[in-house]
Q: What sequence folds into this?
């Protein structure tokens, strides 16, 4: 299970200020921290960027890849910004992402074929609603693969995000278990090794108690690893949670074990 840092977010005040001033130093410092903590990749969450999408995206990509050669996830719903990011990036890149929304199928998916990039597909209805059961998630997964194939994107390029729900939802805990089943069953359903990704922080959206939040996230990351998750999008600066994720990945995937594999 590869760990992707979700720490670089436009919603953070210091990152917003860095963008306003076009000052790369706060971004570079954060990325350096993520690299030091063992991130496999960096999610570059720029948001839509509005009318400054071209300059803003170029600024983000150049700032990040000036200090790391790790893979980058370009995380924006703006197709113009996405194209600019793909043009600017030299590192391995993953498009994050698309759903069954018409503008994403028309404008985002073709970029994966054009730039020979992997792309994340979200199990959401066209109106962005989250399906309430496993059967609907499977139906949407099949539709995502069909739409990608129609755009010339091979199934091997697709990484499925089953969309982890907040536990605060009325049926959040039931849906969280459904996500685990989807991760387990998708490869058998589609008869090839489907890759999956999950955003851990979604689970505890709205949680006020940080101790409880971390306990629940650590428990769920172990369950995700056991289900066969390939990529976990998480706070890579949370040392304890990262240690749990790495140990869980070892127990879930490795055939041989030694204590030297476990980091404290």
A:
């Amino acid at each position: 299970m590869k760990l992707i840092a979700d720490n670089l977010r436009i919603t953070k005040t210091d990152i917003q200020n860095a963008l306003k001033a076009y000052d790369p130093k706060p971004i570079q410092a954060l990325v350096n921290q993520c690299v030091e903590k063992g991130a496999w990749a960096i999610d570059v969450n720029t948001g839509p960027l509005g009318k400054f999408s071209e300059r803003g995206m170029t600024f983000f990509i150049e700032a990040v890849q000036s200090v790391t050669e790790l893979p980058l996830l370009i995380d924006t719903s703006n197709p113009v910004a996405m194209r600019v990011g793909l043009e600017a990036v030299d590192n391995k890149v993953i498009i994050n992402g698309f759903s069954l929304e018409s503008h994403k199928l028309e404008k985002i998916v073709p970029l994966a074929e054009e730039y020979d990039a992997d792309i994340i597909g979200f199990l959401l209805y066209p109106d962005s609603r989250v399906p309430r059961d496993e059967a609907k998630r499977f139906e949407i997964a099949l539709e995502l693969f069909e739409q990608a194939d129609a755009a010339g994107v091979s199934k091997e390029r697709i990484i499925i995000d089953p969309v982890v729900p907040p536990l605060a939802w009325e049926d959040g805990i039931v849906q969280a278990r459904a996500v685990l089943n989807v991760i387990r069953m998708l490869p058998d359903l589609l008869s090839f090794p489907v890759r999956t990704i999950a955003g851990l922080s979604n689970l505890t959206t709205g949680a006020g108690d940080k101790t409880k939040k971390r306990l629940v996230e650590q428990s769920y990351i172990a369950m995700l690893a056991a289900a066969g998750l390939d990529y976990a999008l998480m706070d890579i600066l949370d040392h304890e949670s990262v240690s749990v994720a790495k140990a869980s990945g070892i127990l879930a995937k490795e055939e041989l074990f030694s204590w030297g594999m476990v980091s404290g």
